[in-house]
Amino acid sequence: MPQLGRLVSDLGPDKVLLDRPDRVLYRYDAIAEGEVPLAVALPERTEDVAALVRWSRASGVPLVPRGAASGLSGGSVPVTESVVVAFTRMRELRIDPGARLAEAQPGVVTVEVSEAAAAYDLYYPPDPASHKQSTLGGNLAENAGGPQCFKKGVTGDYVHALEWVDAEGKVRRATREAHDLVGLLVGSEGTLGLITRAWLRLEPRPKHTRTLAAYFGDVGAAAQAASRAIAAGVVPAKLEFMDGACLRAVEDAFRIGLPRDAAAMLLVDTDGDDLEIVEEELELVAAACREAGGRVQRAGDAQEAGRLWQARRAVSAALGRIHPHRMNEDIVVPRSKLAEVVRRIHELGEASPWPLVQFGHIGDGNLHPNILYDARETPHEEVHELAHAIARVALEHGGVISGEHGIGLTKRAFLAEALPEPTLSALRRVKRAFDPESRFNPGKVLP
Ligand SMILES: Cc1cc2nc3c(=O)[nH]c(=O)nc-3n(C[C@H](O)[C@H](O)[C@H](O)COP(=O)(O)OP(=O)(O)OC[C@H]3O[C@@H](n4cnc5c(N)ncnc54)[C@H](O)[C@@H]3O)c2cc1C
């Protein structure tokens, strides 16, 4: 393709991958497989990104932004002839303790922000379970959540300002003033513009944290306990859920010492600067768990708490040992409906030929039902039907089909059912206003 020669001369040969074995690696994210890109661009600074967009305008070849490809909705996977823009070389990070801000390029790995801020007793609260792999660019584009987001808020709540490149190749700055451009760009899944820098708010670390695990004989009872704890007025720092199948998968893989006979587990942290209040809140959660029939185990020390959290972080890896493929749903339902929804999904799983497991940030009403299967034996369409049934359960209970993983490619087909036509049409107009020729991440999000 002659335009690729121009791309190499515009950007420099060391910033473009053209060999097929290199390009093939960029057709995947953590869940989906797309087309092999025509080329992979590896920009190092904002000017490179602007040059890429200008090249895209001239050549007509779309751009697909990509962070670490840990995404779970196929967002960074090309679906048309495109060039992938991999931001992994843009890794500058500077902490300004006075302003309590981190200034970062999009390729910075999420956990690195808190690691760098720790020198000033500060941290960056958004903590996707993938924080050791995912990048800030991906987090911003998906408005990533995580265990701490129940109390602390999601990625978008920590954005002070953004620098981004628009569809004309111009470098712009988005702030919260007047029309909230930050609010539009965060969560836009790479479809409105390319984020090249972010100024992120940091917070002082809470002085005390306490942890408990509670085990239940019934999935619905665990969900009920979560709702009760919150209704009692506690806002735990983290409130996570795993069903019995997840517990057993983790135990088989990592021998952490989890009970194999439990139907569900809640994992809870309370935190703050006043130890008395932190302890009191943990006791209120423990009481809600016991009332719902749970067996409560308080972590005796930080080591034990770390071991319990290791169990939660290990779920995805452990599930991969059961079947090589999974369809990862990301529904959110009102907390008052959690028990009913968790039970309904459990029933769908019992009637299905494939294991259907559930875990998630239950404090936020955010559940990840995962269908485990082997794509070499199972037609994708059949699994898709079950995923659709799960999405419908969420919608019937007043919920939504994505809390944090985005719509991307894999949930695009459900969006028309999830949103009314006037809303879809407004979203299409926003897309056209930002990207009239659909050069940014085509084939994603909007049906
Ligand atoms: C084990 C595991 C656990 C996970 N846990 C969580 C969790 O707790 N919470 C959560 O929210 N997610 C979670 N995820 C999903 C995933 O890690 C997040 O969606 C993350 O934000 C993606 O970051 P990434 O750098 O990998 O982005 P990618 O997957 O590469 O891309 C994601 C999206 O961002 C766009 N994008 C990337 N960079 C830019 C940029 N600079 N400008 C514009 N658009 C851009 C891409 O086009 C794509 O649409 C998990 C994934 C795994 C595998």
UniProtKB/TrEMBL annotation:
Domain FAD-binding PCMH-type stretches: 33-205
Pfam families: FAD-oxidase_C, FAD_binding_4
Keywords: FAD, Flavoprotein, Oxidoreductase
Cofactor(s) recorded in Swiss-Prot or TrEMBL: FAD
Domain of life: Bacteria
Species for this entry: Oceanithermus profundus
InterPro entries to which the protein is assigned, alphabetical: FAD-bd_oxidored_4_C (IPR004113), FAD-bd_PCMH (IPR016166), FAD-bd_PCMH-like_sf (IPR036318), FAD-bd_PCMH_sub1 (IPR016167), FAD-bd_PCMH_sub2 (IPR016169), FAD-linked_Oxase-like_C (IPR016164), FAD-linked_OxidoTrans_Type4 (IPR051914), Oxid_FAD_bind_N (IPR006094)
Protein name: FAD-binding protein
GO MF annotations in UniProt: FAD binding; oxidoreductase activity
Protein family according to the UniProt entry: Belongs to the FAD-binding oxidoreductase/transferase type 4 family.
